[in-house]
TrEMBL record:
Matches recorded under Pfam families: Ammonium_transp
Domain Ammonium transporter AmtB-like: 27-94, 136-421
Family listed: Belongs to the ammonia transporter channel (TC 1.A.11.2) family.
Subcellular location: Membrane
Species, as recorded: Rubus argutus (Southern blackberry)
Keywords: Ammonia transport, Membrane, Transmembrane, Transmembrane helix, Transport
Membrane-topology annotation of the record: Multi-pass membrane protein
GO molecular function (one): ammonium channel activity
Signal sequence annotation: none
Cellular component, GO, one term: plasma membrane
Major location category of this protein: membrane
Protein name, as recorded: Ammonium transporter AmtB-like domain-containing protein
Keyword Transmembrane among UniProt keywords: yes
């Protein structure tokens, strides 16, 4: 469909600013987009590079860097209009380039009363912030999976018109990427046994620096969702920080209660689950509800990672190295359902297309809203399982999904010819008694990073 002509009436005092453009809102969108971009570059680059074993630090960092570039190009060439363009199917938009100045100005000039919750500049950073799995997989997943959820829930698709609430991506981003990552881990297969048994983070302090950038950038992630520097944006930023802080403290408290000591990695996990959980309702819930969501996100994903992971044969079979299923899928699903409970009617009226939207806690049609949240979650889960499986099986026709064992033993040097740190001299062998650190949990010796894999190897009776 051709872009309809629009007229421009420019301000006499600022010729480069159309009369319809709110400079404050525009400045906040650019700021929010920058904050979200910093979550990936350098936030996730530092976090992922530091939290993995030393021999995979370069590969993990480079994949985040590559995804940052690949997603941006795919976004403007085809994916943006698949997510927010004209309808092709009830769950998918028509793909086309979004590069022309007239098209971009027309999108910016959509009246606020009919705007869809998206930003051309901020959106491309979202998928790369949660799913970095492979050279071919990243653009294919963006096009055939992410855009489906984005159009269905945000871009005018069937879930959007049905009134499903996803303020800033608990379903579109986190539930989808967590399920896709878990599905991909199933098809790719496990790491080497030696890596699963001992996978220590190579730099805990840098890991904290990356986590801090992620937390601070989340203010743009959620605060930029309403398109404007308005009440919803302010509430979203406040709730984001409240929920993350609560979740971190709850997760750390559970670590102390059951393992006798606080874990830095555990604190980062709690922070992450809190950020993910609040995302689908950040600007739509009262701050007391954000604290409740933080308590839930600091405890339920903890139980799924530390208890259910050990008891479930499926979770044990799939080598979800960084625990994406627990931190993104479980926390994202939890946040979407809790939004269906706690979405405050007055806040919903400020931004949602359905002026009658409300959480079940507030009575009225809130029960129907909770049901909608459940149905939407099932759609996102099923679509990502199917689409991720098809994509990976298609890739497997051309290249193996798993590296040969001899390369897995070496790591970065085999893949890139580069290493992250020159910590040992030539010919010096790794000595765990000098350079390693083990922790004893109920008398069992194991690496701290096995915590991050959700498999400490202990039985916890709650």
């Amino acid at each position: 469909m051709a872009t309809p002509p629009i007229s421009f009436a420019y301000s006499e005092t600022s010729p480069a600013v159309p009369a319809w453009l709110n400079k404050g809102d525009n400045a906040w969108q650019l700021t929010a987009a920058t904050l979200v971009g910093l979550q990936s570059m350098p936030g996730l680059v530092i976090l992922y590079a530091s939290i993995v074993k030393k021999k995979w630090a370069v590969n993990s960092a480079f994949m985040a860097l590559y995804a940052f570039a690949a997603v941006l190009i795919c976004w403007v060439l085809v994916a943006y209009r698949m997510a927010f363009g004209d309808e092709l199917l009830p769950f998918w938009g028509k793909g086309a380039p979004a590069l022309g100045q007239r098209f971009l100005i027309h999108r910016a000039n959509v009246p606020e009363s009919v705007r869809k919750p998206n930003s051309m500049t901020e959106q491309p950073y979202y998928p790369m912030a949660t799913l970095v799995l492979g050279w071919l997989f990243v653009p294919l997943w963006l096009i055939f999976s992410y855009t489906v959820g984005a159009f269905s829930l945000w871009g005018g698709g069937f879930l959007y018109h049905w009134g499903v609430i996803d303020y800033s991506g608990g379903y579109v981003i986190h539930l989808s990427s967590g399920i896709a990552g878990f599905t991909a881990a199933y098809w790719v297969g496990p790491r080497l046994k030696s890596d699963k048994e001992r996978f220590p983070p190579n730099n805990v302090l840098l890991m904290l620096a990356g986590a801090g950038l992620l937390w601070m950038g989340w203010s743009g992630f959620n605060g930029g969702a309403p398109y404007a520097a308005n009440i919803n944006a302010s509430i979203a930023v406040l709730n984001t920080n409240i929920c993350a802080a609560t979740s971190l403290l709850v997760w750390t408290s559970l670590d102390v209660m059951f393992f006798g000591k606080p874990s830095v990695i555990g604190a980062v996990q709690g922070m992450m689950t809190g950020l993910v959980c609040i995302t689908p309702g950040a600007g739509l819930v009262q701050s007391w509800a954000a604290i409740v969501m933080g308590i839930a996100s600091g405890s339920i994903p903890w139980v799924s990672m530390m208890v259910l992971h050990k008891k479930s044969s499926l979770l044990q079979k799939v080598d979800d190295t960084l625990g994406a299923f627990h931190t993104h899928a479980v926390a994202g699903l939890l946040g979407g359902l809790l939004t269906g409970l706690f979405a405050e009617p007055a806040l919903c009226r400020l931004i949602l297309p359905d002026s009658n939207s409300r959480g079940a806690f507030y009575g009225g049609n809130g029960g129907a809203q909770f049901l909608k949240q459940m149905v939407a979650a099932m759609f996102v889960i099923v679509w990502n399982i199917v689409s991720t499986t098809i994509i990976l099986l298609g890739i497997r026709f051309f290249i193996p999904l798993r590296m040969p064992d001899e390369q897995l033993i070496i790591g970065d040097d085999a893949v890139h010819g580069e290493e992250a740190y020159a910590l040992w001299g030539d010919g010096e062998k790794y000595d765990p008694t000098k350079h390693g650190w083990n922790t004893s949990v109920y008398g069992e010796e194991m690496a701290p990073s096995t915590y991050f894999n959700g498999a400490r190897g202990v039985t916890i009776n709650l």
